[in-house]
Amino acid sequence: MIPIRDINQTRRTPIVTWALIAANVLVFFGTLSLGKDQAEDVVMRFGVIPDVILHGNWGATRMEGGALGSWVTPITSMFLHGGVLHVGLNMLFLHVFGDNIEDVLGRGRFVVFYLLCGLGAVVGQVLVDPDSTVPMIGASGAISGVLAAYVTLFPHARVVTLIPIFIFIHLVELPAGIFIVLWFVLQLVQGYLSLGMIAEGAGGVAWFAHIGGFLAGLVCIRLMYRRPRGRRRVFR
Q1: DSSP state letter for 61
Q2: pTM of the model
């Protein structure tokens, strides 16, 4: 299922959401301009490597093979992507769901919320695969938190969804509650199936980052959202 747009009006221009999308796209094309070895160095330096964070030598810099400086990677990793499909799908999800969460939280709190969800994603993946030497990159963990906030606040909003069935493509309107719950169940299933790959030390999609980011979003939206007094949100 691929979201195309939601039917849920906002009251303000989603400047932060647009800025995050622009930053991710610019960084992605910036890495494309590098040579293969340079691009790999960027991913190794600014991606999250669980083994380095937990077991690395904090007396030496990353350039020297240590862990000093790794504290920035949970943030920097959110702006790195491994391909056009990776960045494209992430930014589509952020575009569809991010504006409404920015609208209700306000720009400043939305930035904090987004970053906290990204950190929750890192915690989720590191806890499950603490010895991994494969760098984790991508905004999907933080965006998973945005989906958690959306389903909490707007479960009945409609999401225009593209559903490919064999060679046919269908567009349907689904309640956000159904769309996001199905999406999260898929993450749980894929996460469970990936445990075998984790045991073998193989790379792949960081499913538990999605799960960790989603759970962080569920917690953070309840702590950060302030319902307007005497007014209720109305969906059209």
Answers
A1: B
A2: 0.90
